[in-house]
Amino acid sequence: MTSDDLVRQISDVGIDDRPAVGGKGASLGELSRAGLRVPAGYVVTAQAFERGMLALDPAGAIRGEIERLPAGDGATIARGGRGVPAAAPRSRSAPAPPARTAPRPASPACRTPTCGSAARRR
Question: Is the domain of 5 the same as that of 41?
Fold first, then answer.
């Protein structure tokens, strides 16, 4: 398996790659090839998705839940999708989420919401 099987540059894909990269990825590739401005980027292939799902859900429980959701019912799909991250066992290859740190308290002299932040206006 090569890295091309998992990730492809948008500029390297076209309509013939639709089964591997999906409709949006293929369309962006076509636009790029036609000379239209498309931000540089990449597409994660269907094979990469399948490989990730197998690592996260080897027994297929999550996929089974997804397949039971009614097509076209966005509200039910959104409700059902909320439990998927919790149901997925953490894979050894998946990194842990970054630790969150509390923001530094503002100095007593600070009286504005953006005081001390990088977003401060000049």
Answer: yes
